[in-house]
């Protein structure tokens, strides 16, 4: 099966260069944060968010081990607060919606906070910037979040944004869906 995270990384490679600014809105175990830090280089910056202290600490250690500690600013707060913590435009943002792999499956991203986060971060995107939102929705609350996000993305003005939806159509059991949002103006 195609790994959607690999697709997210391929798209991110085409969007970021040394000195870019990126956001990992759902830090989790730090895999995307580390990957983005490698792309933005020493002059770039990655802002990463998670509500769980253990996710932030795990990511901090992971980045320090990779030599990327100075490239990232980590926040222990909801992704809904992300836009308010960033004082500059960004080139890219990434979400992995659902729950922390290996963590408490009762602690999940939710429709309300995800919509607030997406709306805020779209406002921070530079012209030609990209948002990548990977939705895992097979858990309680996941379908509500996915449907709410999809309705929100469908109403974005076509003159300002292109929105692409990528998913496996021949898979059962809630295959992940990737939304790619490109800011046109």
What do you see in this structure?
By secondary structure, this protein is of the alpha/beta class. The protein has a single domain, classed as Vaccinia Virus protein VP39 (Rossmann fold, 3-Layer(aba) Sandwich). The protein contains 6 helices and 7 strands; from the N terminus they run αβαβαβαβαβαββ. The chain has helices at residues 4-15, 31-40, 53-66, 82-85, 111-124, 142-154; strands spanning 21-24, 45-50, 72-76, 90-97, 125-135, 161-167, 177-183. Strand 2 (45-50), helix 3 and strand 3 (72-76) form a beta-alpha-beta unit. Helix 2 (31-40) packs across helix 3 (53-66) and helix 5 (111-124) packs parallel to helix 6 (142-154). The longest helix has 14 residues, at 53-66.
Compose a concise summary of this entry.
This protein is an alpha/beta fold and 185 residues long. It contains 6 helices and 7 strands. Strand 4, helix 5 and strand 5 form a beta-alpha-beta unit.
How is this fold's topology laid out?
Blueprint: H1 4-15, E1 21-24, H2 31-40, E2 45-50, H3 53-66, E3 72-76, H4 82-85, E4 90-97, H5 111-124, E5 125-135, H6 142-154, E6 161-167, E7 177-183
Parallel strand pairs: 1-2, 1-4, 2-3, 4-5
Antiparallel strand pairs: 5-7, 6-7
Helix pairs in contact: 2-3, 5-6
InterPro entries: MnmM_MeTrfase, SAM-dependent_MTases_sf
Keywords: Methyltransferase, Transferase
Organism: Candidatus Onthocola gallistercoris
Averaged pLDDT, please?
Answer: 96
Number of strands: 7
CATH topology: Rossmann fold
Unreliable spans are none
CATH superfamily: Vaccinia Virus protein VP39
- SSE order, one letter for each helix or strand: HEHEHEHEHEHEE
The separation of the N and C termini measures: 35 Å
The fraction of residues assigned to DSSP E strands is 25-35%
Can you identify the CATH class? Alpha Beta
Number of domains: 1
Discrete helix count: 6
Per the principal axes of the C-alpha atoms, what is the gross shape? Answer: globular
Helix content: 25-40%
Organism: Candidatus Onthocola gallistercoris
Protein name: SAM-dependent methyltransferase
InterPro entries: MnmM_MeTrfase, SAM-dependent_MTases_sf
GO molecular function: methyltransferase activity
């Amino acid at each position: 099966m195609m790994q959607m995270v690999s697709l997210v990384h391929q798209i991110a490679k085409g969007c970021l260069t040394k000195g870019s600014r990126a956001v990992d809105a759902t830090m989790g175990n730090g895999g995307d944060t580390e990957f983005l830090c490698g792309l933005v280089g020493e002059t770039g910056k990655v802002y990463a968010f998670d509500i769980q202290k253990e996710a932030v600490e795990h990511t901090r250690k992971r980045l320090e081990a990779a030599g990327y500690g100075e490239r990232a600013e980590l926040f222990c707060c909801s992704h809904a607060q992300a836009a308010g913590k960033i004082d500059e435009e960004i080139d890219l943002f990434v979400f992995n919606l659902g729950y922390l792999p290996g963590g408490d499956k009762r602690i999940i991203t939710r429709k309300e906070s995800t919509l607030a986060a997406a709306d805020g971060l779209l406002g921070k995107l530079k012209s030609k910037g990209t948002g990548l939102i990977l939705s895992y929705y097979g858990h309680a609350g996941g379908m509500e979040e996915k449907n709410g996000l999809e309705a929100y993305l469908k109403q974005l003005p076509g003159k300002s944004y292109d929105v692409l939806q990528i998913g496996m159509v021949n898979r059962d059991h809630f295959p992940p869906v990737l939304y790619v949002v490109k800011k046109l103006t």
